[in-house]
Amino acid sequence: MLLTCGALANGNPSPIAIEYLPTATKAVAVTAPDSRFVVSVYTDSAPLSKAHMAVGGKNISLKFSGQDTTTRLCFFQNPGDNKISTASWVESFRKDSPENLEAITIDGAILCTFDKWVTQVGDKVLPLGLLSITFAGEVPPSGTPLIDANGKIVGLILQKISARNAYAIPSQAVRRVQHDIEGHRKLVRGWLGISLSTESIAPRITHVWPDSPADKAGLSEGDILVSASGYPTARYPDAVNALFYSIPGQSTPVQVSRKNQRISCEIVPIPQKPGE
Prior knowledge:
Radius of gyration: 20 Å
CATH architecture of the largest domain: Beta Barrel
Order of helices and strands: EEEEEEEEEEEEEEHEEHEEHEE
Structural class: mainly beta
Helix content: 10-25%
Strand content: 35-45%
């Protein structure tokens, strides 16, 4: 993987052009929310080889920090002495966030628009919600940062879906994965101990595992999940997205509807189902 530094313009993040080896796939990287890391997106299935950054005609090795095959995010240690500019990120990109954005490419900015959240494609429920983005020009490479009017990164391009459209990973997903990369070099999902109905429109709890975090918090079969991790869960795909942000060992706010009453609780997920 060969990386070359891009130029900083008007306080915007400075993108880094990369090429993944052995596939020779081109992408873009920026400094992560924690500037100790550089983050990019790798969409190929082939194993990654060594990473290098070209500075002054020399290739400088980058140390691989971790990869998540769910979001396709890859993290590397930031070799800070090579003047990769620090990027500013929003905490979270929500449905009421600004529609007008810019994609910051190696060659400059491209106007783009946030269209909607996508949690399901056809019959396939996505493991997390993605941003649907429309561009004024051609879709830039994977990993290209999207910024708001304040120059803060709201997401990274995941993959092209048409000549002018792409899916993007929201900033909060980058933060979520980075949290686990720092401690585990991979994403560790939080397990609450519930099963949800995939057949009903509303995410109804069909099973609560005995002695699970959800059981200890008082959830019951038949409860309708209303929100989790601060995300409303009107449909099953919404619930899948919300539960992506539950972190093992950290309290997750959950609200359910039971016999027309709203019940709120805090659940502390564990890393995995017991016995796995």
